[in-house]
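Sample intake sheet
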Amino acid sequence: NSSAFEIDLSFFQLNLGSPIEIRISHKDDCKPKIVNPEVLKPMSTFDISSIGISKNGVLAITTTNETGELPYTIEQFRWSKWVEVGEFEGKGNPEKNDYEIQLTTVHNGQNRFRVKQTDYKNKPRYSFEAKTNSPLPEITFQPGDGKKVTDAINFSDNTLYEVYNGYGNVVAKGVGKRVDVTGFEKGTYYLNYGTSTATFKR
């Protein structure tokens, strides 16, 4: 009896990304352990054929060379960093894959978007950027930069926002026209919104 077995999948001449099912029969008191289960997980291998944004804010992507169903994360560059703003499921086909996603975080001026996939190796694979210019008006907020807020922050329109406390921790984030701050402790807070940054006091 051997305590270890190896299945050489190369013998079956499988294409990368082909579905495979492995069944192991065992006794109740002899449960097997797979020492390298990651070899059966999908890998991020996609290539971007085209990526662009329509006037209506639809992100259109065509990919090839997908070898497994992995989610894509949509990122937008704002506040001097890449921010995750959405996600959609990959189809996993090695041939042509078409995707259309309605973007909800387009702001005034130039917008930059990209997508990424992360497989079991935990190393992101990125697309190149898609850019578009929007005539939307600049977002403002009340009561204004540096002012004291008692109940809520009110934006002039829906916007992606982040609120950090004095220790650099995120205390609120989302998309909307209003941020309730009644539960915030007293102190100075840092606000990212629209294409701008500001501070306010509680």
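Comment: Residues 141-201 form one domain. The radius of gyration is 24 Å.
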